[in-house]
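Assemble and predict.
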Amino acid sequence: MPMNERLKLSRNRWILNFGLLLVLVGLIYYGYRNNPAVTLQMCLNAPLRYDQKEIGVGTEAIVVEVLPDGFLLKEMDRTIRVKGNPQNVDQGDFVRMQAIFHKEGYLELKRLHVAKGRRLRIFISILPALLVLFLLFRTYRFDWRRMLFTERT
Amino acid sequence: MMPDLITHFAAAYILKVPSRWSRFRVPFYLGAILPDLLSRPFYILYPPATYTVYSLHTPVVSVIVCFLIAQFFEGEIRSRIRTNFLLGIALHFGLDFLQKHVIVSYYWFFPFSWKTFELGLFWPEDSLRLVPLWISIVFIIEVTGQVKKRIKKTQEN
């Protein structure tokens, strides 16, 4: 292929890459700004506004203490009391739940799922990620000059 | 919350066993774990990032990322790389769709709708019980494949 044709193709590729990247960043920003979910952090920051609001809690939320009538939950460095049947909850468990927020600073449990084995799931997920990356670089070679993966022969 | 990556990888591996498809198996595997790779590390290591990165685990955004990654492959193989990436991503979301959650799970139609639904057949952690089975199946297929290759090579010589 002639040099000027190759340069044109390469320039078109970078324009397309830039366009895709722009759309990607735009979508991430749109998602961040417009998500309708009410989070526990929002409730704790404005308790009066979200009083009696049913919310979903589960952003790496961990049980820090089990109580006779519920448990203490920690999410993003903030701790809140959860009132309700603690079921099979243990200290250190990851949980996801639906609960009603009360302005007095506690949650009334509606539905709970204890994510037993979450740590193990995260740990074992590292292995296939490394394996696929290994296979990728074993099958393809990255040409830094052209910024392209080429098939290894 | 989604099945572990061993389950996602094993499903992709088993589907790609037929040898005529094996040339582009790596992008298929990568597609099968890509949505989790794009989002999970961020919010596991830094939970406040959850609402910034969750959109990376949606079909539309995954497809855009797939197109972007495919751009970094040679022109002659780019379309096949892209197709295999896309099929891998479809498999990933197919498995995720089978799960159940107590709170909002996946925004399938992001950015057009915030509706969320799933089949609700199993909890994300349930897939852990089958991990030894997946590893055994992948191991058996891989070893059988290697043995067959060696026999073929010996016969050719």
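The radius of gyration of chain B is 18 Å.
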